[in-house]
Design a protein that fits this description.
With 262 residues, the chain is of the alpha/beta class. The chain has six helices and 13 strands. A seven-stranded mixed beta sheet has the order 4-5-3-2-1-12-13. Strands 6-7-8-9-11-10 form a six-stranded mixed beta sheet, covered by helices on one side. Strand 4 and strand 5 form a beta hairpin. The structure holds manganese (II) ion. Manganese (II) ion binds next to loops.
Length: 262
Amino acid sequence: MTTRIALAGDWHATTWWARDCVNSLPDDVKLLIHLGDFGLMGPTRADYITAVNECAASRDLDVWVIPGNHEDYDWLEQRPVDDDGVAQIAERVFVLPRGYRFVIERVVFCAVGGAVSIDQGQRTMGTTWWPQEEITEAEVMEVSSGGHADVLLTHDAPINADPPSMPHADLTQFAGVAVADKAYLHHRRVQDICDALTPRRLLHGHFHSRYTRPITSTGPGGDPYECVVDGLACDRLAGNLVLTTIDGGAETIEEFEVIHDH
Ligand SMILES: [Mn+2]
């Protein structure tokens, strides 16, 4: 069997973009996994969730969301979850908990959302910024204890990927030393999870930039391993969406251009 799924970077509750993404997909794609900053804003953006759901339902497609940092975690934590911690927020829209594992065509995936909002100084806690956005040390331990996964899906990037972002000195200037340090510590935590799971591939969002970079690091027991890191761009940009073909226990990624003339 061959299964094709879509992976998307940040949408920031941009309804027209989300619609165009879903409507552009080939008919055989029945699952879109979103890598965070989807725009989970609860009742304040119920229109967006409804629009994505209707679009997905019309194409018989499910949307799985890995939360990012710009999501209303207070609202999210109130959603009922199933035995695996998955919250169904609409008929075709599901939110995955940190450390959620699933298998498609013998490829083991692990999803771990969360990142640090570097502009939290300009935001209001509980209204436009939520401290639950961060992966905690305890969560790093818990996710790591699950052992190897083939593909790791995150919102933040592992530090070894050196994602296109502000250098620490510039970030300190912008956000202050405490937030800059927190952001870098968070990249380190994603790297720690990566080093425990030793995936051959990691895909993430958050940096609004499409890039591919092989990294080397050290797994459990001190053995070196290689991982190909893919960052996806955000809404309105090329490189926001990729297709993944999974066949015979292996996955291949292809670029996908969103069509806007439906
Ligand atoms: Mn983000």
